[in-house]
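Record 1 of the preview.
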Amino acid sequence: MKLNELTIKQAHDSLVKKEFTAVELTGSCLDEIKKTDQQIRAFITVTLEQALAKAKQVDQKIAQGDSISDLAGIPYAAKDIFCVANIKTTAGSKILENFIAPYESTTTARLKKQDAVLVGKTNLDEFAMGSSTENSGFFPTHNPHDLERVPGGSSGGSAAALAAGHCLYALGTDTGGSIRQPAAMCGVVGVKPTYGRTSRYGVIAMASSLDTIGYFAKNIEDAAIILQAVAGDDEKESTSSNIALDHYSEEIKKDVRGLKIGIPQEYFELEGLDPEVKKIIAKAIKKIEEITGSRAREISLPHTDYALACYYIIMPAEVSSNLARYDGIKYGLSEKSQDLLGSYLKSRAQGFGAEVKRRIILGTYSLSYGYYDAYYKKALAVRTLVKKDFDQAFKLVDVILAPTTPTPAFKLGEKIGDPLQMYASDIFTIPASLAGLPALSLPCGQIGQLPVGLQIIGQQFDEKTILRLGHYYEQNRK
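->
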């Protein structure tokens, strides 16, 4: 096995035993990037020198007999929406093409403290707006399983980088499914923690009441290690929670017998669900019934039909507010004009792509006088109903199982001209986002060479249970 194909746990154990060095491990990932990223296009920036320097520091610590953290010397990639001090941070947009972050996000700072090795910043749909990574201001990313297909989005660069062996784990953000959906399409584990479990500080905002920091891993064991490192309260971020963390690496080993499983009938009745995906998910549910010794029960989430429409009113409204700061004055692209208004208009017209402009216009419209009550206020009321659906369901069950995506990865260009069809790619992930719940996607089968993902949704701040069930499923799947 190549070094870049190891899991975090395998690589850590081998580093401690001095079977290879952190420089060799990092070099293996950098070599793979050099070899295959011209076809995949997962990275916007590769941080070669910084990565090797950090790996060398870890090797020195090991040589001195110092103990190291589970993530020390382990190469990772970060979605290019995380600010990393003194490194270019573009959010996949021309308006920030040359922006050098002056400070560090809490998540990358926590990983830096653990001596993790950043190998680069990955491509994304511009400002995380998209489901295919085709809306990047620079170039589309390709799915490593089939280069003619999308990797999902908006964190498609991170998912593709991990699937291609460019790193051992990767950071992403999930607003309406932007980690879970690409994880499913690229055949890796993707975790969206509870809203507030991880800090948003230093991550470029899209929709502040929905944005959640998460990550991609090769298996659940690695996912538990990463969550332990990045989760927790942050005094710099007002929405982060001080609810105590669990010891996830130990929790995943505990018994799952008797766990109550819920299957939302509405998810399996929605139009557009590929029959092959449905069959694979049904097989995964049957296996989980065997593992838990519990029969899955059908539950109802009656407002599922309204979740997509609700999300696409709330999210653009928050986008229009958050993106008002990009005016060409303090930072980013600045186009000169005869007056201030002209400079604003030219900078934003040239800096933003079509999807970003579409969402700003939609959001501004729904917040405007005469439409706020008709659209935005009603959407907030529906969001409350979606959350109540989950609250009622969790009185009966411990976890909810569903498909992650209605189809496997679709072809590049297939949906880019039809925004509504593209938005429907997130139909199974959006409800949990609206409710602020933890959810993960893990591989459960394939259609040809294309992966299919199983989604496990849990109660607020109960990441340990969805990780535990995912871990047991991985161990017993075959």
